[in-house]
Known about the structure:
Elements: E1 9-11, E2 24-27, E3 36-40, E4 46-48, E5 50-53, E6 57-62, E7 70-72, E8 75-77, E9 81-86, E10 92-93, E11 108-110, E12 117-120, E13 128-129, E14 133-135, E15 142-144, E16 169-176, E17 179-187, E18 193-200, E19 214-222, E20 228-235
Parallel strand pairs: 1-4, 2-5, 3-6, 4-7, 5-8, 6-9, 7-10, 8-11, 9-12, 10-13, 11-14, 12-15
Antiparallel strand pairs: 16-17, 17-20, 18-19
Amino acid sequence: MNDSSGGTTIAGGTAPGYAGTPVVVLRGPGAGSSAIGLQVLSAHNKVVGLEIDSFGEGIEITGPSATDNLILSNHIVTDGIGVAVRDARNNHIGTDSDGVNDAPEANVISGNTGAGILIAGSRASGNSALGNSIFANGGLGIDLGGDGVTPNDFRDGDAGVNWLQNFPMLTDVLAGSGSTTFVGTLDSAPNTTFRIEFFTSPAADASGFGEGQSFIGAATITTDTQGQASFNKHSP
């Protein structure tokens, strides 16, 4: 996909018979580990409602011109990486530009032999991956930089891919009376507002840094002058 004016939409969700599960399939068995199902090189494109499987990468968004693209409601399973964002900014995987993951927008990114989502390259920033069902992948659910788990650092002072965003730390999970309470903290940039999402999965991820199969809620928190914030989220 390379429309220099931007604005191309691939709308698999409009196909006859679509009812939330893709009926338009891009399949590349035997194409090889370097094969890409769809490549996005320009801005303001939408890829909606496709099944993409058996490629080396399902979708690649690449280059400084590839901004503000939307990847919504797709099912992606590959012989490598599900969705790769390389040197691209402000793209949205699983949510439109309003920043709120409405359930039909979420992608299912599962069974890839590599990372579910890879964000890499020195110019990659401001990319969001919200509300997606990401599970049973061979690599991390979301890998910043392609080098595995990035440790947290004080006040999230490091630079790099998506600013190498620190991850929140759960300190307790309390279940009872038909609801679950998530308790934890975030150490990140001072005086900044963040969205933290909560998921359940039937089994723990082998890496120890879990993926999330079923979205169950989110919390918006703001760090203090020291970069600290806590959350206590009840769901549902």
